[in-house]
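Subject: for your reference before the review

Hello V.,

The reviewers asked for a structural picture of the protein, and I figured it would be easier to keep everything in one thread rather than splitting it across files. Below is the amino acid sequence we used in the manuscript, unchanged from the supplementary table.
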Amino acid sequence: MAEEPVIVCDLDGVLWRGDTVIPGSSAAVEAFRAAGRRVAFLTNNSSHRVRDVVDRLAAIGVTASAADVLTSAQAAAALLAIDLAPGARVLACAGPGVVEALSDAGYECVDAGSSAEVPADDPYGAVVVGFHREFDFGRLDRAAAAVRAGARFVATNLDATYPASLRVLPGAGALVAAVATASGCTPEVAGKPHSATVRLVQERLGRHGVMVGDRPSTDGVLAQRLDWPFAMVLSGIGGHDPMEPIPTEPAPAWVADDLAGLVEALSGYGRG
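And here is what came back from the structure prediction:
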């Protein structure tokens, strides 16, 4: 029997914008499940721990387990694990989600906000930069110094902006750009739409699905690389930001105002 496509939803801009829940989003998830679909959640926002994401979903009426949540922090840890041995010291210029993912992968994680100096005799194996609101000069200095000293430089993602309730905020890409400028180095990127996330999705969710998101440059390109259709919602960045217009080549398979507008199309997708 053929594997049923899983519906993979982005979070920021699809289920919520900052502290504001997007109307109809939780009911849409339940409608997909009532139609027999598995729904999973994939976010480039690396700042939150998995259990915090699960708790936030529960607070808006969406039941989820840790297995249903995939993050760019997990993709970054998986990227490092290809050739960085467990036990290596990794500097996290990022939020609790990155600290959790690195610790779960067996790394000695050091918070860049801890005033930690670059060890002269045993430098960091890597620096991971992700979205966090505590970013300041000290964190920039420590992250850049570690990269200049030879640490591998990994970005959770390069999203320049982040959709908040009332306006667009600087995203992880803005912080990564600062570290790249100060260190003179270009990062490896783990999150959507890069290969580490492609592998994470395929290993965790299988090879058949639909990617639902608001940002064509990440969600849409990831869908192409997975060979999945892209369902674009206009409740977040895409379609409103001049940097993220609705693409025409290839065009999304579906475009809707919000997740609720996709229920009919996606509930029956792949069933003939």
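For the response letter, the relevant points are probably these. The two ends are 14 Å apart (CA to CA). The chain has two domains: 6-44+192-267, 73-189.

Happy to draft the paragraph if you're swamped.

O.
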